[in-house]
Amino acid sequence: MTLSQLGAFVYVARLGSVKAAARALGVSEPAVSQSLAQLRRHLGDPLVTRSGSRMVLTEAGGRLLGIASQIVALGAEAVAAVQPGRTAPLRVVMDGTFAEHVAGPLLCLFNQRKAVDAAGGVAATAEMPPLLAARLADVALGAQVSGPGLVSKPVLRCRLIAVGSPRGRRDHWLVGPSGTDPAGDSGRLLRLLRVPESQVRVFANQTAAWKAAADGAGLAPATAHLVAGRLRRGDLVAVETPATPLAAYWYATALEPGSRSAAAGAFLDFLTTPAATQVMRAPADGIPRSRFRPPVHVSIWS
Prior knowledge:
Helix content is 41%, strand content 20%. The protein has 302 residues and is α/β, with parallel strands linked by helices. The strands form 3 sheets. Strands 3, 4, 5, 6, 9, 10 and 11 form a 7-stranded mixed sheet that branches. It has a two-stranded antiparallel ribbon with strand order 1-2. Strands 7-8 form a two-stranded parallel ribbon. β1 and β2 (54-57) form a beta hairpin. It is globular, with a radius of gyration of 20 Å. The two termini are 13 Å apart. Residues 293-302 have low confidence and may be disordered.
């Protein structure tokens, strides 16, 4: 039995599916499934079983969950105890748009300034509170979330607009995976416009949705500063709708100050700096090569 196997089990149990666990961890579904299968064989119990669209705990899985969560958290503390000069890694979960466009340069700049290894994963808004509460993530970035012991603060004000081609279709809406999150900004916009599901097309990522919009396939929600370059070049045009421009905020959420990790506190302080704000406003500018540090990839946080 390994920390990786226990980590996979805890994520599946907390989020309710292998797919959600893999998305939050930034790994493939087979990687999570394999770790979970190895733990099941070792303990001789299914631990989680499918009920409708969700995975639910067996009786033995319910008894294991609290212990496994503590073990995974203690694993990180053990590393910090043995290597006191090394700051524990930062684990950040975020929505798909943030992960696609902002996370890379933002986490690289933080790594360079604070010498803290940061790993990022994607999670839906509803999945963020249990990850933070179970200490499986240190900080959540994206929409505002709430829960016992959590503090959510805005880190950037932005505007959501609709973009498309000058002569493109207006009867379809094109979104990335984060557009299916009802608590996200794109989901909020579609609700305000009362767009039926039959008129929404989901693409592999937000960039693909914007490209399809530029090709005339429909309209796409967009954070204004992330598409500013495309608007200047004329690849896309802003299209007026009854609900846009829509005021929005990017939030950072973590445990209360007395409970959060040192890495989480350092990252939250970093997000208030002019350098971090500049990266979030203009992530396409990147960072100087001399300041780049490649991200750390892990199979399972532990």
